Amino acid sequence: MICGSMFSGKTEELIRRLRRAVIARQTVEIFKPLTDKRYADEDVVSHDANRLSCTPVSSAMNILLLFQGAQVIGLDEAQFFDEDVVYVCRELANKGVRVIVAGLDMDYMGRPFGYMPSLMAIADDVQKVHAICQNCGAEALFSHRITSGSNLIHLGEKDHYIPLCRSCFSKANFAP
Questions:
Q1: Would you please indicate which residues are annotated as catalytic (active-site) residues?
Q2: Are 125 and 8 in contact (CB under 8 A)?
Q3: Helix (H) or strand (E) run with residue 132 in it
Q4: At a CB cut-off of 8 Å and minimum separation 6, what does 20 contact?
Q5: Are 110 and 142 in contact (CB under 8 A)?
Q6: Contact 164/134 with Cβ under 8 angstroms?
Q7: Which of 47, 56, 99, 174 is most deeply packed, by most CB within 10 A?
Q8: Can you point out the beta strands (E) in 10-110?
Q9: 62-99, pLDDT tens digit by residue?
Q10: What is the pLDDT of residues 47-63, one digit of tens each?
Q11: What predicted TM-score, i.e. pTM, was given to this entire model?
């Protein structure tokens, strides 16, 4: 499990681990939610433009339907998957598949995002990565939305979100 705020390198780390699996001659399959079309329809792409081909799916259960016996499965943007993502990851792991999941641990309001807490609970290992606070340069834990709107899911990049540390996030969201 790789989790953290936006711009923390989650997808970059996922791609790195999956490329290492390929170097080790392991079979790899990669999935992402169909809704994630920020950079490419059928690629997992990091902010640094590193990419790997993937299969976009409309629901987590489709991963089990499309699974072709790979030794390693990668899931990007896991916070956008439906509730079945926990079952799917557990099912694959119990069959001996190495499952590597990347996603936002918190939403733009600093609350646990989607089924990420459940995925972290069942993970063998959790790595929390950090961005750099755009205000003060400290380690950033939060994805702060800088555009208006109250929809929980709002796909965007640096024009919509910035990473903030706890202190700057608190000042931006809870200041009188």
A1: 77
A2: no
A3: strand 131-132
A4: none
A5: yes
A6: yes
A7: 99
A8: 28-33, 43-45, 51-53, 55-57, 72-75, 98-104
A9: 999 999 999 999 999 999 999 999 999 999 999 999 99
A10: 565 667 788 999 999 99
A11: 0.87
